[in-house]
Design brief:
Length: 127
């Protein structure tokens, strides 16, 4: 059967794809390598964009999402124990959509009468 066009898929079989991901995590445990998405891509002889592309393919999506969750779980666990978690924070922001959030209260708790008194006092002091 002829190919419909475009580049053929690097990974054809979702079951073999899932097994390769599981083997990666076993390999990380055995060798002490850090389970990151980038390391998974190297292990699978592709790049992280390829994994992102497969994440939107129905038959591969669950496997990639599960791998991302496992990598994130490791990242958070290591970050909690890290002396300096800056790299863990950086990776969480860049790879998993985490962000710093500042809450700024813009409510002013000064009555109009108090504001007028303060303004009048400043004007009186400029003489």
């Amino acid at each position: 059967m002829a190919h419909a066009g475009g580049r053929p898929l690097k990974f054809q079989d979702p079951i073999a794809f899932d097994k390769m991901i599981d083997d990666f995590f076993i390999n990380c445990e055995e060798t002490g390598h850090k389970p990151t998405i980038e390391h998974l891509a190297v292990y699978m002889n592709c790049n992280h964009e390829t994994l992102s592309d497969y994440e939107v393919r129905e038959q591969f999506s669950a496997s990639v999402k599960k791998a991302r969750r496992r990598c994130l779980d490791w990242l958070i666990s290591q970050g909690l124990d890290a002396r300096n978690p800056a790299m863990h924070i950086f990776l969480a922001k860049n790879n998993y959509g985490y962000k710093d959030k500042q809450e700024i209260d813009t409510n002013i708790n000064v009555s109009m009468a108090d504001a007028l008194k303060q303004a009048r006092s400043r004007l009186d002091n400029t003489d």
